[in-house]
Amino acid sequence: MSAKRSQNDGGASSRGSHRAGEPTRVVGKPLRKVDATDKVTGKTLFADDLVRPRMLYCKLLRSHLPHATIKNIDLGPALAMEGVVAGLTGAEMPIQFGILPVSQDEHALALDKARFIGDPIAAICAEDEETAEAAIHAIKVELEPLPTITGIEDGIKIDEPRIHDYGTRGNVHKVVNLQFGDVEAGFAEADHVRDDVIFFEGNTHLPMEQHASLAEWSADRKLTLWSSTQTPHYVHRALAKVLEMPAARVRVIACPNGGGFGGKSDPFNHEIVVAKFAMMTGRPVKVTLTREEVFYCHRGRHPVLMRIKTGVKKDGAITGMHFQSALDGGAYGSYGVASTFYTGALQTVTYKIPRYHFQGIRLFTNKAPCGPKRGHGTPQPRHALEVQLDKIAEDLKMDPAEIRLKHLTPPDSVTANYLKIGSMGLGECIRKVVAGSDWKNKHRKLPYGRGVGIACSSYLSGAGLPIYWNHMPHSGVQLKLDRSGGVAVFCGSTDIGQGSDSVLAYVVAEVLGIDPFDIRVVTADTDLTPVDLGSYSSRVTLMTGNAALQAAERARELVAKAVAEKLEAKVNDIVFADGRVFRASNPDEGYSFAKAVQYAEAKFGTIGTVGSYTPPRSPGRFKGAGVGPSPAYSYSAAVVELDVDPDTGAPQVHKIWIGHDIGKSINPLLVEGQVEGSVYMGLGEAIMEEMVYRENRNMVHKIPSMLEYKSPTTFEMCDVETYLIEDPDPNGPFGAKEAGQGPLLPIMPAVANAVYDAVGVRIDEIPVTAEKIRRAMRDKERGREGRFGPTKFPDVDWGDPLVVPPPWEGGDGKPLEEEALKK
Amino acid sequence: MLRLPNFHYHVPATVAEAVALKAEHGPHASYVAGGTDLYPNMKRRQQEPHHVIQISQLRELHEVRDEGGHVRVGAGLTLTAVHQHERIARDYHALAEAAESVATPLLRNMGTLGGNLCLDTRCNYYDQSYEWRKGINFCMKKDGDICWVAKSSPKCLAVSSTDTAPVAVALGAAIEVTSAKGETRRIPAGDFFRNDGIDYMKKEHDELVTSIHLPAPNGWRSSYMKLRRRGSFDFPVLGVAVFVKFANAKGAAAKDAPVEEARVVLGAVFSEPTIVHGAADALVGRPLTKESIEDAAEAAFKIAKPMDNTDYLLSYRKEMVMPFTKRALLKVM
Amino acid sequence: MSDHRVIPEPPKTVLHMKVNGVRIEEAIRPHKTLLEVLREDLLLTGTKHGCELGECGTCAVLVDGEPVLSCLVLGVACQGKSVETVEGMANGPELHPLQEAFAELGAAQCGYCTPGFLLTAKELLDRDPDPSRETMIAALAGNLCRCTGYLKIYEAIELAAARMRGVK
Predict the structure, then answer these.
(1) How far apart are CA A664 and CA A724, in angstroms?
(2) Cβ–Cβ of C60/B103 closer than 8 Å?
(3) What architecture is the A47-146+205-297 domain classified under in CATH?
């Protein structure tokens, strides 16, 4: 299909003999995961499963006030209790940390003030967890309450007290204002302009595993931390910084994660606290959070209020889009600056948008900090865009599938905001789900109460830039081959259930022609494995896959040379397959893989190779151009069919058809699993999940429990038909793109659109719950607008925009100078 | 890991021993059968008994006996056992439905009928950890003195969240309790509860619920409807149990027969299961028709006063009283 | 507030039970849940926990063959009983057909809820060797999974059930 497409310039992307479209032996097969057997026998050791001799247990005291000055903390009564070994307050770890260099705003334990209910302010370690828990309650704390900032409106309006003393102003953390072309001119030439305000409530990851960490300190001044983290490299950096340790003496081992979804991507207070305790006591120290504490760690989906104004021609062609977003950030920065940019980044990669203006604002509020959840910052704007497009299609009397198909962003193009698109299989995704769902005979044709809705999306296969500025690779792989024929792969990536360990084995096995289950995979250990930035941004398959591919091809070259010499053959006549290395023209002539490695070891010495991956440079040259670029974009389209009970408003989703442009499946079984899991999580967000607080009751989290935070059970989950579209991308290993996040995105808008098809009401607020549907239905019955949702976007001082002319207006990716703007 | 506080654990051999232990330790003791209500509450320090008296091993509590037409169901039957019991599923369908709708299959394997009848009232200002409750300076049900649901309320507004109790009340069942004095009494289910989130049962603290007596099945019909967000796990945020007895009811003839006796009971909108007298008035003396059902549902809607302390908006829970009552009644038509 | 521990520690009781067919004798305090006894005293960490309040199903084990939540069962309440955990499912080096099918069909992603699902499913197949989707949905409604959307779990149970019935 698109195999002829040239590679992007820049980094060391896929190269060598394994190009997209070639026949494969391992890649593309529905194999089990390399860690599957451990997972079904209970052998997998998650962080809380680890036990060390003389281990102590840690508990954190968290603020019970949403915003307060810490007047005094007296650990005395707690330290006096039998079995209590040590205590800590913020004063002992005054150095700040945070995931982004621009938001180093966290303390391991709050120093002078607490910023939300759940903010850790002191810690105890004791001989057992019960003693630590009891001791926490014995700590005497004097907190002086401060006025609270409860949400977006407050954050914009109330400047004092400031939750943090940095940011744009008052409680405004960040303002973004990027203009690509003259959007007003676009609206002027439109036949129809729509202006919608839509709200997406926050929600959380809810991994089944509660975060846990175990730290150990050795007498030779080395620190080891085992943790349920998706980003051991960033935890490594944070530990070294806060504890003022040489990084070389700090070892972070990411345990298999019992679910991540983005919730274990920040360095956390508890990780630093147990490390400090281990250093203080010389004993191993473990902490396991309770479910309620996991809610306080949060870093989940930002609540986002959005205004989207779009001009279209009669045929649905977009002439311009103005998108505004306001993010309720919670109490800390986390990934929030990136999240803010992401609410404006990917609008352009699905449908042609010739002129685009994005304005985003993130507010600090006294709630658990928001951050990256599956889709990071993009599901909310995607939802708004896809719902609005459904309305536009209706306004223009067009089929919502057709309007999308007609105006797709072309492959191998650059968007108005300078994102470089490679392969683009969205059209095929749409065609598949339209055909599979019998869309044409259902849309607007089903009986009252039943409806279908369609929506599309796109996501990154890894971010173009690292979180901290550097010129080093994003992912590294080392390969060790020894004379036994054994192959070990070392990589810093972290398996959070998505199967990244398996991807490493499959890629290496494919190149070396061996069984993936013969390979040892060693990952996520900062002492043993080369750096990989972490399991976030859907970056692992593409980036570690490419690094593994490079390392494996380098190893293969060494072995091939040695074997060619023995067989007196040409190197390019040597084939690796089925555990043998042999002459292509005469397969009987050759050696077992082990024998081949021995020849290579004899010829070259110990066989070890490395591979690394750096994404290609993106064309944007403006401040903010770092968020959005990716080596490859995945695409998804979904059709949802559901019932709405007319009396109760309760939605019941029956089936979802989803097409996903994966580029190439390294393992279709695992891709399908990621797609189905994304559909599940999207369904939860669409109809029930929400992270809500009681603003009039001291800003307590309303429902910090598995019971009251509604995650869909087997009864709510629907049937799913998955279509994998393989349009290989030259930047992906074997053409592969991401699968873990993108397929979540179309579910929420497709559900909202299906509800409209079913009962004729627009629910412009996520989640689309029974009570909102019923309310809108009642309004409609009474002759009012059948809509539930926000009506206005607050006034914001956006400052002057950064103006970047799009490529087709002669832009070169750089912003216009002030001089040019004046003209 | 969230853990239980310490307590003394007792495993009595008989009901008499159990009630004696309870009498001895007074309010500091709790009975426990399945533990699915008590233990989470203890882990969150909502209840802090010093003595826990295990009763699930008491054989006497596990019997299902026919006593001259009516059926005596032991309080110790698990909810799974209740809904799978052939006789109960046949003659007391609403009770089986209610039992099967409780929580999850795993929890129903543990939780008992008696436990569900005596389920602690629930409120999302109360069913929270100690640390959380500290954030609102506690509430009158535990450690505090205000009701956060309505700050001016003199009494606790925690919600009766049992599925089986509204059915028991609707059926006109009796709850049998045994006291430390060795006395056994049967309390009509309709008199067993009190509309007070703290003091929600009229039994004495030492009295143990040993069984529930179900009336003889003589032609009446019953059903149960439950509002909750998910098909599993969730407690009811509205329950409707109905009981309808037709005059001379026999099979198909019931269609036009006038209703002789009826009870519509609302669960999860007050601190006790609540009989809607107006609904019975609307139903009795007329055949069960769309019109009479509409009137009964209207009566139920009028009295329901859900508060903002469970899942779903309270206005929605109130609105749902109509369709849920109608559907419960349509099921027995 | 009262002391967070409520009362001083009562004495330990000696618990006798069978775990995965092995006789266990362990002195424990009454307030220790079966979950804690399994994980902390017996180091059988295959049983996981997600809330400790009975709200997720992760810690499900079989007690006398019946699936229950080990976070809400006291250790001392298992006196004389027989407990089965994920570690006991395999027959020597042979995986249980459910384990095999879960591995084969990608029913375990992060694997954290997997032990609870496996044991709940095992009891289901003991009762009903050929369960319909509806039956599975009802039987597994007390186990939450955040990764799979349950679909691969159903497929794995169907495959295991077919193999156990001898269907090729």
Answers:
(1) 9
(2) no
(3) Alpha-Beta Complex (3.90)
